[in-house]
C-alpha cells in the first residue's frame, strides 16, 4: 500500500473512538522498522492531520477543521550538529518539532514560574488538557488567530522504572469545542505509541 493511503479513512469509521483506533493501527504500521524520533513524529503529525481533514463530519461542520497538528519537544533532546560547533539547548524550554499546518512559534518556556500557554501546562502537569475555547484560556499562545479550540497531550516515557517527560503533542481546531473525552483517550494512546516506538 502507498504510504499516503495510511491517511485514507474507510466508510466504516463513524465515531471518534473508531477514528483514533484506526489512526493508531495505521501509525503502528508506519513506524515499524526504525526508531528515529524526527521521522516517526513527522509521519505521526502528517497522519493525524491528514486523517482529521479526511473525516469532514468529525468537527460537526465540514468547513471547520483541524488547522495544526504537531509536536513540541524538550530542547535538550534535539540532536547537536556534528559539523558546526553547537551547545545543547536547555531542558527548560520546548522547541518546535515535526508538525503539519501553518508556521508556529518556535520556543515555549516550561521553566518553573515562566511557563505559559496550553502546551507548557500539559507538559508541567503531565496531563492532557482539552481547551474548548482558546479565548477563555489564560495565557494561551495564539500561533494562529483562526484557532478556536485545542488539545495538548504530554509525551511520557516510562522506562526502567523511571518516568520522563519528553514534550507534547498539540492539535488545534477552527471550531469551538473541537475536541473532547474520546479525543483525549485516543490521542493519549497515539502519543504512547509514538513515544514507545522511538529512541530518545
Ligand atoms: N497554543 C499553544 C501554542 C502552540 S500552537 O497552538 C501551535 C499554547 O498555548 O501552548
From TrEMBL:
<dbReference type="GO" id="GO:0033745">
    <property type="term" value="F:L-methionine-(R)-S-oxide reductase activity"/>
</dbReference>
<dbReference type="InterPro" id="IPR003018">
    <property type="entry name" value="GAF"/>
</dbReference>
<dbReference type="InterPro" id="IPR051330">
    <property type="entry name" value="Phosphatase_reg/MetRdx"/>
</dbReference>
<feature type="domain" description="GAF">
    <location>
        <begin position="115"/>
        <end position="194"/>
    </location>
</feature>
<dbReference type="InterPro" id="IPR000614">
    <property type="entry name" value="FRMsr_CS"/>
</dbReference>
<dbReference type="Pfam" id="PF01590">
    <property type="entry name" value="GAF"/>
</dbReference>
<dbReference type="InterPro" id="IPR029016">
    <property type="entry name" value="GAF-like_dom_sf"/>
</dbReference>
<dbReference type="GO" id="GO:0005829">
    <property type="term" value="C:cytosol"/>
</dbReference>
<comment type="similarity">
    <text>Belongs to the free Met sulfoxide reductase family.</text>
</comment>
<protein>
    <submittedName>
        <fullName>GAF domain-like protein</fullName>
    </submittedName>
</protein>
Amino acid at each position: 500500500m502507498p504510504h499516503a493511503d495510511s491517511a485514507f479513512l474507510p466508510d466504516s469509521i463513524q465515531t471518534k473512538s473508531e477514528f483514533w483506533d484506526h489512526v493508531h493501527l495505521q501509525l503502528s504500521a508506519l513506524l515499524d522498522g526504525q526508531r528515529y524520533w524526527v521521522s516517526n513524529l513527522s509521519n505521526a503529525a502528517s497522519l493525524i492531520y491528514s486523517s482529521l481533514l479526511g473525516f469532514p463530519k468529525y468537527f460537526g461542520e465540514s468547513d471547520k477543521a483541524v488547522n495544526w497538528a504537531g509536536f513540541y519537544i524538550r530542547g535538550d533532546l534535539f540532536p547537536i550538529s556534528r559539523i558546526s560547533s553547537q551547545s545543547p539547548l536547555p531542558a527548560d524550554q520546548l522547541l518546535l518539532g515535526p508538525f503539519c499546518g501553518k508556521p508556529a512559534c518556535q520556543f515555549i518556556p516550561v521553566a518553573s514560574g515562566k511557563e505559559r500557554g496550553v502546551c507548557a501546562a500539559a507538559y508541567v502537569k503531565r496531563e492532557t488538557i482539552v481547551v474548548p475555547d482558546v479565548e477563555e484560556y489564560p495565557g494561551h499562545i495564539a500561533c494562529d488567530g483562526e484557532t478556536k479550540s485545542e488539545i495538548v497531550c504530554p509525551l511520557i516515557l516510562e522506562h526502567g522504572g523511571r518516568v520522563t517527560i519528553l514534550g507534547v503533542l498539540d492539535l488545534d481546531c477552527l471550531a469551538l469545542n473541537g475536541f473532547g473525552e474520546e479525543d483525549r483517550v485516543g490521542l493519549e494512546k497515539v502519543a504512547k505509541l509514538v513515544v514507545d516506538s522511538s529512541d530518545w
